[in-house]
Specification:
- The protein is mostly beta strands and 163 residues long.
- The protein has one helix at 132-145; strands at 3-6, 9-12, 18-23, 34-39, 63-69, 107-115, 118-126, 146-148, 159-161.
- The chain has one domain (3-156).
- The strands form two sheets. A six-stranded antiparallel β-sheet has the order 6-7-5-4-3-9, covered by helices on one side. A three-stranded antiparallel β-sheet has the order 1-2-8.
- A hairpin with a 2-residue loop joins β6 (107-115) and β7 (118-126).
- The longest helix is centred in the C-terminal third of the chain and has 14 residues, at 132-145.
């Protein structure tokens, strides 16, 4: 299982997944925090934090996920009260109306939580809601492959690895 690691996020990529972990360049007074993208298809280079530009090119049997770090300023906020990432997601956790942008046939889920003292959002999209019972185990594999550290150590370059 290939492993990627940067900014206090480590993923042992399940078979068929690719991923990258990075921090976008800071623009003005806005501070950027680590983002991790994962997919079972080639993820385009220039996509939005939550997959815009990627989810529209994924196939029906594909999965896309984002792990988004909201930074120390969000620690202790009620939105992030859940301790630990979600585990054991079920097909019922995925709904078309949970997508950030509705795309025919797809469904998604989003979870806010704190782990290792850091506030995160985990957002996942399934390529085909009708076969979610086949795709959700892939999302659970990815979730169980993650390791989050309390601090985000500086990393000179983004980590990325393909299939």
């Amino acid at each position: 299982m290939p492993t990627i690691s940067a900014h206090g996020i480590t993923a042992r990529l399940p078979s068929g997944f690719e991923g990258r972990i990075f921090v976008r360049p800071t623009i003005g007074p806005i501070t950027s925090h680590p983002i991790a993208h994962f997919g079972t298809f080639p993820i385009p280079n220039d996509i939005g934090d939550f997959g815009s530009g990627a989810v529209n090119v994924m196939g029906p049997s594909d999965v896309f996920a984002t792990l988004f770090d909201y930074g120390p300023e969000s620690v202790g906020k009620r939105l992030f009260a859940r301790q630990g990432r979600p585990v054991g997601l079920t097909p019922a956790d995925f709904r078309p109306m949970l997508l950030r942008r509705a795309l025919a046939g797809q469904s998604g889920t989003q979870w806010f939580f704190t782990e290792a003292g850091r506030p995160f959002s985990f957002y996942a999209v399934l390529g085909n809601h009708a076969i979610r019972s086949q795709l959700v185990p892939r999302v659970n594999q990815l979730l169980s492959s993650l390791s989050l550290s309390p601090t985000a150590p500086a990393t000179p370059a983004p980590a990325a690895l393909g299939n």
